[in-house]
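thought: user wants a sequence for this fold. calling inverse folding tool.
action: design(structure=
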């Protein structure tokens, strides 16, 4: 799998850009460069976000890129005059669209894809997801849901007032501003996540069992042995003193006297304790 991923990456990065522009959009150039510099990732397609006015065939129920005329397209903010100039050339069904940032990244392992997906979600791209192909390709799609699509003309005839075109332009530009903020947030979060991931891989796992120094253990054991010896010495000394007192008492008493039996009995009891 490692070799296959490297082959896929080399093949993708060395082929010609098939997009209309032929180059990476300026607002996401640093994002694409960062991902392609990592061993775990490479980008397969990207768009920083754009406003588009396209003219489709009147009989078509939905707009297909391959069967439409591009009346206007910009990856930056637009003006209502730009849209009006484009609509003047419409002969079919013109549709205005705002398409937010989208990025497709092929990942080496599933863990790498999950990290990318987490960064995307935390950066505001809530429509992101993962796919795994039959050939083992793991793709993370970074997408958001704040797009916009509005039909403006039918069979070349404008369906809305000019005032609505101005309003629509303002809404699209606000979405573009938010889109650029999310791209910057995504780039910063991605940098942080990749740095943290590298640091975690470099860390050496510590042993769960803490080991005391050899000298400390020996001193502890010696201290415990010393305490035991002191206890034994005190016990012997105490027994010796009791016996000395009893012998002294027997020496002072007559053997036939009743009182002489008491220390002897105490001595016997002492032996059984």
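)
observation: tool returned 273 residues.
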């Amino acid at each position: 799998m490692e070799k296959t991923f490297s082959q896929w990456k080399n093949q993708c990065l060395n082929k010609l850009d098939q997009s209309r522009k032929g180059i990476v959009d300026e607002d996401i150039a640093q994002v694409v460069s960062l991902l392609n510099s990592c061993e775990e990732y490479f980008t397969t397609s990207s768009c920083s976000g754009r406003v588009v006015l396209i003219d489709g065939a009147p009989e078509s129920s939905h707009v297909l890129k391959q069967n439409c005329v591009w009346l206007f397209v910009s990856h930056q903010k637009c003006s209502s005059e730009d849209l009006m100039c484009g609509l003047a050339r419409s002969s079919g069904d013109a549709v205005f669209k705002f398409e937010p940032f989208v990025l497709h990244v092929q990942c080496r392992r599933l863990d790498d894809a999950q990290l990318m997906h987490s960064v995307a979600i935390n950066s505001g791209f809530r429509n992101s997801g993962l796919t795994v192909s039959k050939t083992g390709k793991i793709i993370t799609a970074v997408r958001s849901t704040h797009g916009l699509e509005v039909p403006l003309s039918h069979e070349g005839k404008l369906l809305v007032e000019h005032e609505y075109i101005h309003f629509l332009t303002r809404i699209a530009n606000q979405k573009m501003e938010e889109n650029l903020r999310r791209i910057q947030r995504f780039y910063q979060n991605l940098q942080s996540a990749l740095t943290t991931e590298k640091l975690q891989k470099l860390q050496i796992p510590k042993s769960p069992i803490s080991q005391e120094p050899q000298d400390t253990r020996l001193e502890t054991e010696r201290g415990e042995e010393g305490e035991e010896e002191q206890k034994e010495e005190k016990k012997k000394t105490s027994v010796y003193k009791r016996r000395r007192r009893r012998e002294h008492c027997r020496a002072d008493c007559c053997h036939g006297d009743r009182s002489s039996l008491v220390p002897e009995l105490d001595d016997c009891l002492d032996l059984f304790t």
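thought: summarizing for user.
answer: Here is the designed sequence. The beta strands are 41-47, 50-56, 68-74, 93-99, 102-107, 129-132, 138-142, 148-151, 153-154, 157-158.
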